[in-house]
Amino acid sequence: MVKALLSALLVLVAMSSTFGKYIPKTGKRIPQTLSRGWGDQLIWAQTYEEGLYWSRSRNKPLMVLFHLEDCPHSQALRKLFSEDNEIQRTLDEDFIVLNLVYETTDKHLSPDGQYVPRIIFVDPTMTVRADIVGRYSNRMYAYEPSDLKLLLGNMKKAKKLLKSEL
């Protein structure tokens, strides 16, 4: 009886570990402080210029995420964003990622104002994808926790546009 219970427990533990957080193909990575909680297993660019360089050299779109540490909207989005395995996998495999807690001097990254959270896509030719927007007309690049499916769709759109334009 004890052996059967231990066997069942072992099977349950093994199964539950397969449903955990996303782990990249290259194995678990050491968490970076650059993630700021948005995805510790992702490799984050340090600056906008570095993100543009990586985007161009690796031929991947750049996703720039503007947020503030103490903003409740940013915190709510960060929690769900970091727990969504499909978003984390897509970012890891197909994007260069950068998160900023400050504004850049590039006015193309704030086409409709400076607010947070805001997500902008930039293609490898360094063109800001102003056509990839969220669901709000007054904050075109804002996303809320309920908008994760839209964000994932926009990420796929950024990849698809990249492939069809190059």
Automatic annotation (TrEMBL):
TM ranges: none
Pfam families noted in UniProt: Thioredoxin_7
Keywords: Endoplasmic reticulum, Secreted, Signal
Compartments, record wording: Endoplasmic reticulum; Secreted
Main location: endoplasmic reticulum
Record's signal peptide: 1-20
PANTHER family named among the record's database cross-references: ANTERIOR GRADIENT PROTEIN 2 HOMOLOG, ANTERIOR GRADIENT PROTEIN-RELATED
Family (UniProt): Belongs to the AGR family.
Name this protein carries in UniProt: Anterior gradient protein 2 homolog
Organism, as annotated: Gouania willdenowi (Blunt-snouted clingfish)
